[in-house]
Amino acid sequence: MSQADVNGVPRELPDDGRSLVTWLRELGLTGTKSPCGSGHCGGCTVLLDERPVLSCIVLAATTRGRRITTIEGLAEREDELLEQFAEHSAAQCGFCTPGMIVAARAHLSQPHEPSDERQAARRALAGNVCRCTGYTRIVDAVLSCESAEEGAPCAK
Fold first, then answer.
1. 10-33: b or e for each residue (b if 16 or more CB lie within 10 Å)?
2. What end-to-end distance do the CA atoms of the chain give, in Å?
3. How many CB atoms lie within 10 A of CB 147?
């Protein structure tokens, strides 16, 4: 029996060719979207061992023994980044928002040079497509966490 940790819960993995996004959605974790199904839009971004991956091009069976965090997992731990997206009106239709937040969380969790925070945030979100915004409010939400003092909720 092979398992993966999904948002802190051990789950038995499928042994067929299902994609990670398909399996997660079958588990009821429908916050992770699958807009393109080919790894081009970022809407299916999840964290795999704290690193962002496009779950539509990852086979679920390959995640054995690994930690998967979805947007629901970030919500369960009350990640301040979700609040910042709301405060900055960073979500328009909301379809890309889960992938954007997960990618932003990965960016904020990694050490990087603060010399050009706006450009670094834009690079971190470059694989996530939003058709509704000009990205300014999304980047502003990420930067509000970026500038939080060390140890603040956004830095987790």
1. ebebbeeebbbbbbbbebebebbb
2. 32
3. 11
Beta bridge partners of 4: 11
CA distance 67 to 64: 9
DSSP conformational letter for 54: E
pLDDT digits (tens, 9 = 90+) for 70-105: 999 999 999 999 999 999 999 888 889 999 999 999
Whether 80 and 153 have beta carbons less than 8 Å apart is answered as: yes
* Cβ count near 62 (within 10 Å): 12
What is the rounded CA–CA span in Å between residue 11 and residue 101? 23
CA neighbor of 46 nearest in space, from 2, 16, 5: 5
- In the beta sheet, which residues pair with residue 3? 12
Taking only the tens place, the pLDDT of each residue in 133-156 is 779 999 999 999 876 645 555 755
